[in-house]
Design a protein that fits this description.
This protein is 67% helix and 0% strand. By secondary structure, the chain is mainly α. The longest helix is centred in the C-terminal third of the chain and has 18 residues, at 60-77. It is globular. The mean pLDDT is 77.
Length: 78
């Protein structure tokens, strides 16, 4: 079974045609923090994750499940 393609937050943001400033305006989070979260240098708090997911128009639970399923499939294939 193949692993589904997982898009990063940055890829999702760019697909929507949004800049970090756009997401900053939608979330109230500083664009520097958003950039660090996108690059994996900062872990988003549950509140930040919820705000970002709402700003990008997806349900956080859906994406989280997809990530866990992909990891499980990779481990099963190993």
């Amino acid at each position: 079974m193949s692993v589904p393609y997982l898009r990063t937050l940055r890829e999702l943001r760019l697909e929507l045609g949004l800049t970090l400033r756009d997401v900053q305006a939608r979330t109230g989070l500083h664009k520097g923090a958003l950039s660090q979260i996108e690059r994996g240098r900062l872990v988003a708090s549950p509140r930040e994750a919820r705000l970002i997911s709402q700003a990008l128009g997806f349900q956080l639970e859906t994406r989280t499940v997809l990530v866990y399923e992909a990891v499980d499939e990779q481990e099963a294939a190993a």
